[in-house]
Amino acid sequence: MNRHGHGSPAPRARALESAAGQSWTEQLKHPVNTLRRLERFIETTPGEREAIATLQTVWGTTPHFAALMDPRDPACPIRRQVIPSLAERENRYGRPDFLAWVEQGAEATPACILKAYPDRVVFLVSDRCASYCRHCFRRDLILCPGRRPRLEREEGLRWLREHTEIRDVLISGGDPFLLVDAEIDHLVRKLREIPHITLIRIGTRTPVVLPQRITPGLMKILRGYHRVPIWISLQCNHPREITEPMARAVYDLLSCGVSVGNQAVLLRGINDDAETFRELHRRLLTIRVRPYYLFYCDFAPGIDHFRTPLEKGAELIRDALQGQITGLAQPHYVVSTNIGKIPIQARERRSRAGRSCRLRNAEGKTVTLPRIPD
Ligand SMILES: *Cc1c(COP(=O)(O)O)cnc(C)c1O
Fold first, then answer.
1. What's the N-to-C CA distance of the chain in angstroms?
2. Index of the ligand 1 atom closest to the CA of residue 120
3. Which atom of ligand 1 has the smallest separation from the CA of 340?
4. What's the 61 CA to ligand 1 centre distance in angstroms?
5. Alpha-carbon distance 11 to 19, whole Å?
6. Domains within the chain, CATH numbers bracketed
């Protein structure tokens, strides 16, 4: 039951109207990060209210994203990605030391540079997001009040200039597009001045949660033919996130000569059924976004309620995508570990004698192929 009275449409209607008219800076000035603001959009449940009141966590989203919530359905895929849950107190499979574990063995770098591969690094440039994902794998850094990392961008740039083996820089955070235009411009210019950098990638959820961010000013910074191209990775997890403003933001990015891919996270009860999964990937192609990765829900603590069996993503790709829609729609399914990202395939069966293997298609038909010795 909503404080405003069950069935009263007025506050929600006003909230939706105001969300649709706000610029990106206005959206960020009015985040939906208090119970009072959330209840302008939805009827909260007792569990949601208790989680908001008791969990010590950074949370909140934009009016744009809140407007996509189903006001009456607590299982709404947008609500579950944004509103804290009491289930976050539990942890059975997550590693309390998840961030240290995935970075284990990495060489010493500034705090803003994460290096797991010889030729490429993650460059953390912001500790803020427009919308805080409850399934965030950097939740220890981003969602814990008072544990925000110290991100020195100039120190990161200096490190990159000195490390000539790095060809590919993945700008991440937090969300890099929460920086103001001048900061993004500076970062892109400075990276392009480094002779050994041949690729700039940016991971941002703003086209999904804050499409107003793709302004003419930002487009001017990204636009044009350059020696070093920019590839952008979104995170879009559910077809409901694909709206007209979002599709327009993607188009505007593409029109700058930027490539746009998607990195989805496999989330139980949100996108782990065949129909939603297929619809997500089909719709991504229709807005010109190439699915790149499907991530297994990371072994970060407190997110077991989003966790599926490990094989689930591979089975979904086989059963919901392969043979039913074009290979262009098929992401690489990976799990992040202390030895890097590991691709996971649906299991093939070996014959008992080991001389052949049996492959299965989406319809459950099988074919047997010989195993060729080395
Ligand atoms: C994911 C990741 C990258 C980028 O990996 P790609 O497979 O090239 O997308 C780079 N560095 C780190 C530390 C990563 O976790």
1. 66
2. 10
3. 15
4. 26
5. 12
6. 9-89 (no CATH), 98-306+318-343 (3.20.20.70)
Among 104, 122, 334, name the best residue to mutate to test ligand 1's pocket (greatest count of ligand atoms within 8 A of Cβ): 122
Residues having CB closer than 6 A to ligand 1 are: 114, 116-117, 120-122, 170, 341
Helix (H, G, I), strand (E, B) or coil at 243: coil
pTM for this predicted structure: 0.93
Rounded to the nearest 10°, the torsion over CA 273, 250, 298, 326 is 50
What is the full per-residue pLDDT of the chain (374 aa) written as tens digits?
A: 445 555 555 899 999 999 999 999 999 999 999 999 999 999 999 999 999 999 999 999 999 999 999 999 999 999 999 999 999 999 999 999 999 898 876 778 999 999 999 999 999 999 999 999 999 999 888 998 777 777 899 999 999 999 999 999 999 999 999 999 999 999 999 999 999 999 999 999 999 999 999 999 999 999 999 999 999 999 999 999 999 999 999 999 999 999 999 999 999 999 999 999 999 999 999 999 999 999 999 999 999 999 999 999 999 999 999 989 999 999 999 999 999 999 998 877 666 777 888 888 878 888 988 888 88
Joined tokens for residue 306: 């989003």
Q: Which helix (H) or strand (E) is 187 found in, with range? A: helix 181-192
Residue 341, helix vs strand vs coil: strand
CA atoms within 13 A on the CB side of 137: 21
The most distant pair of C-alpha atoms in the chain lies apart, rounded to whole Å, by 71
